[in-house]
Amino acid sequence: MAALFDLHCHSTVSDGLLSPKDLVAYAAKQGVKVLALTDHDDVAGLQAAREAACEHGIQFVNGVEISVTWKKRTLHIVGLKIDPENAALKAAFEGVRKGRDLRAHEMGADLARIGIHGAYEGAKALAGNSIITRTHFARFLVESGHAKDNKSVFKKYLVKGKPGYKNYEWMSLEQAVKLIKDSGGIPVIAHPGRYDLGTINMLLLMHQFKSLGGVAIEVVTGSHAPPQYQQFAKIAHRFGLKSSLGSDYHGTGISYMPMGCVPDLPEGCVPVWDDWPETANLAN
Ligand code: AMP
Ligand code: MN
Ligand code: MN
Ligand code: MN
């Protein structure tokens, strides 16, 4: 039944390949009934996605995926049911947009130093008016023949220690949770199994997140391997956190999981939607 829900995906407003409208049409075709669009650090796609969802009979949930720096690592915090008109949220994302552009210029300069020219311009052309992300650099590098696919291009150029990687100081965990809560939203730790934290730091993160008013963690996601579903179900239970799920769909060729294929939450999880009146008629 859980494939009816998809609470994490991306459109062209960040680093997805489908416009918000086309993404919703795809979700509908795949049988999704409750959908959150969670673009990175931007809410510009929510209105169009909501209108399309209405046409397709999908329950739409406003979402966003905020980039955070915690203990020198990048984490992602999803905000569900945020108010996209919230002034503090909008101001924060405007700042991130500028910071991303500066980082992208530096990435382009670094890649030029190893003989790859025009990467900033190439990535920028792919991003258009949307925020610029490492995925746009990845697409440019693949399309210009510097790597064979999205997976290998990250490994070769775009992760820590590689020539196109630039460290960036995102907002703090405290700030992200506060922004989400102050705009009426529900903070959710995205794909916790993807961060190389070690046991102690993982438990510390859960503890801090809960203390700050965090509500849920993603247990089932396209970014987790199946054995991690049980592992994070246990962690959620231990910290009194609810469980969320989503495909983290970005588009064909750059996603681990298509929409509409997200497995059920493990037995015993409290779904993040358990008290959402609009989904009360759908099974958990
Ligand atoms: P950014 O927020 O600009 O640093 O870009 C991060 C995005 O790049 C993530 O949201 C993923 O979509 C993608 N990404 C990050 N690491 C990888 C990786 N190792 N393989 C494929 N995609 C990745
Ligand atoms: Mn992404
Ligand atoms: Mn993410
Ligand atoms: Mn994501």
Describe this structure in words.
This protein is α/β, with parallel strands linked by helices and 284 residues long. The protein has 2 domains: 5-85 and 173-279, TIM Barrel; 93-156, DNA polymerase, domain 1 (Orthogonal Bundle), CATH 1.10.150. It contains 9 helices and 7 strands. The chain has helices at 20-29, 46-56, 87-113, 119-127, 134-143, 150-158, 173-182, 198-211, 227-238; strands spanning 5-6, 34-37, 59-70, 73-80, 186-189, 216-221, 242-246. A 7-stranded mixed β-sheet has the order 1-2-3-4-5-6-7. Helix 4 (119-127) packs across helix 5 (134-143). The longest helix has 27 residues, at 87-113. The protein is globular and about 55 Å long. The N and C termini lie close together (7 Å). The model has no long low-confidence stretch (mean pLDDT 96). One manganese (II) ion binds at residues 10, 15, 40, 135, 250.
Task: Spell out the key features of this protein.
2 domains, binds adenosine monophosphate, TIM Barrel, binds manganese (II) ion, 284 residues, alpha/beta, 14% strand, single chain, seven-stranded mixed beta sheet
Query: Order of strands side by side in the largest beta sheet?
Result: 1-2-3-4-5-6-7
Q: Please, what is the average pLDDT?
A: 96
Number of helices: 9
Binned strand content: 5-15%
What's the gyration radius in Å?
18 Å
**Structural class by helix and strand composition:** alpha/beta
Largest sheet: 7 strands, mixed
Low-confidence stretches: none
Small-molecule binders here are: adenosine monophosphate, manganese (II) ion
For the record, the count of structural domains works out to: 2
Helical percent range? 25-40%
End-to-end separation:
7 Å
Going by CATH, the homologous superfamily of the largest domain would be Metal-dependent hydrolases
Q: Quick one: how many beta strands? A: 7
